[in-house]
Amino acid sequence: MLYLVNKSPLMFGNLGSVLRIAQPGEPILLYEDGVFAAAKGAKSEALVQQALSAHPVYALDADLQARGISALVEGIQVVSYDGFVELVEKHQVAPWL
């Protein structure tokens, strides 16, 4: 299962709820305002590090750029739209709104 997280962790608890149900190894993709979780030094950094201990975590490059985020939590993999499509092709998708 690929979990798609598009809400800011500063306003919503969706990343935390994904971590409660996702099986180890299932990927998580941060996009739209979900990429705020990827920012190094953000309030959610400990939560993202917890996610990285059990899951590959991806962030959509275009959304990082649109929000001016360049310093990322170590271990997050940045993907383009093509990478996003590849992840969707490989996994069943669970949009986590």
Q: How would you summarize the topology of this molecule?
A:
Layout: E1 2-5, H1 14-21, E2 28-30, H2 45-52, E3 57-60, H3 61-66, E4 77-79, H4 81-90, E5 93-96
Parallel strand pairs: 1-2, 1-5, 2-3, 3-4
Can you offer a commentary on this structure?
This protein has helices at residues 14-21, 45-52, 61-66, 81-90, and strands at 2-5, 28-30, 57-60, 77-79, 93-96. It is an alpha/beta fold. The chain has a single domain, classed as Hypothetical Protein Ychn, Chain: A (3-Layer(aba) Sandwich). The protein has a five-stranded parallel sheet. The longest helix is centred in the C-terminal third of the chain and has 10 residues, at 81-90. The two termini are 15 Å apart. α3 links the parallel β3 and β4 (77-79). The protein is globular, with a radius of gyration of 12 Å. The model has no long low-confidence stretch (mean pLDDT 95). It contains four helices and five strands, in the order βαβαβαβαβ.
- Number of helical runs? 4
* Beta-strand content bin: 15-25%
Strand order, biggest sheet?
4-3-2-1-5
Whole-number mean pLDDT: 95
Domains (count): 1
Topology-level CATH name:
Hypothetical Protein Ychn, Chain: A
Rg calc: 12 Å
